């Protein structure tokens, strides 16, 4: 079974409280376009995420979440001067913070800046077809013309709402020359 | 046999003529520190390499060469707005150019901007021990804690002057979380 590879550029997820600090009282996220995972969408709202050495203007992905989380690549982390750990989404304890700057205010984020651990979203049905379980760590091959590789340390996440796809960051995508429509396969 | 992994950040090699255009008549490269390959060194001279969307200030690696060559990552290429191909060093035909800006002048480079193809430098003796030949394409495993992977499409370059090491760019290094002293092994 081929798994679509999707590249996640730097972005953030945000709490309703932080959204209101940055964009004003009663601010709401504005839908811009759907993402591949059902219910997830890119928003028109953007914020500056500021580190000791540099900043990036990043888009917010909705809906709002219980914790604000900034996802960057290790290349981004170096440019920003932030030592961000490779973590699964939501595993933020002890991660570094950053300053968020919006049109209505600023948030001094105490923690929440991570480099996303590469992962596969899949449904229970597809997980069975793939022969994998939730939280399983697998190897995944990407056979591009110029930069074929096998990613180890890929975590599988199974949920009825998930559409099967692999998410990697821009460093990983570039290391595989995985621009365009690229598919991967779990190595068994 | 373990192979030291070295990460090449964006840099350029330069002709004597371009060096003089950028730094003035009779300009010479100034040694700053030796690199792992014998005879190669980083220089104190730096230039801005300018693309349609952005620029980076890059260090020059000496000695001078028969052709000016800019080596960037695909992340850099995107930020600069340059569609750089993955190529072996010296294979510059049809590659894009960029503007080089130095303290004494500018060079409109017509071609020479590439993303270096990942490669292993090795001596004839080590090549024999590794069981590989010049120009062979091999798979190489890097077993980091968080981002283990196997790079395909790694080209072997054998020369009596080479010290055995693997060279990857910053995207590839980050995809493997290969900061610090990391070793790799050819997969046979």
Which helices and strands, and how do they pair?
Two copies of one chain form a homodimer.
Chain A (H helix, E strand, L loop, with lengths): L2 E6 L2 E3 L2 H8 L7 E4 L6 E10 L4 E8 L6 E3 L2 H7 L5 E2 L10 E4 L4 E4 L3 E4 L2 E4 L1 H7 L6 E6 L6 E10 L6 E5 H6 L6 E6 L1
Parallel strand pairs in A: 1-14, 2-5, 6-10, 7-10, 11-13
Antiparallel strand pairs in A: 1-15, 2-6, 3-4, 4-5, 4-8, 8-9, 11-14, 12-13, 12-15
| Low-pLDDT residue intervals, each spanning 5 or more residues of chain A | none
The total count of strands of chain A amounts to 15
| Number of H- or I-type helical stretches of chain A | 4
What structural category do the secondary elements of chain A indicate? mainly beta
Q: Tell me the quaternary state.
A: homodimer
Order of helices and strands of chain A: EEHEEEEHEEEEEHEEEHE
Overall average pLDDT of chain A: 97
Largest interface: A-B, 24 and 24 residues
Tell me the radius of gyration of chain A. Answer: 17 Å
| Helical coverage of chain A, percent range | 10-25%
Give the overall form of chain A: globular
Largest sheet of chain A: 9 strands, mixed
Q: State the end-to-end CA separation of chain A.
A: 12 Å
- Tell me what portion of residues of chain A adopts beta-strand conformation: 35-45%
Descriptive keywords:
homodimer, 188 residues, mainly beta, 9-stranded mixed sheet, 6-stranded mixed beta barrel, 4 helices, 15 strands
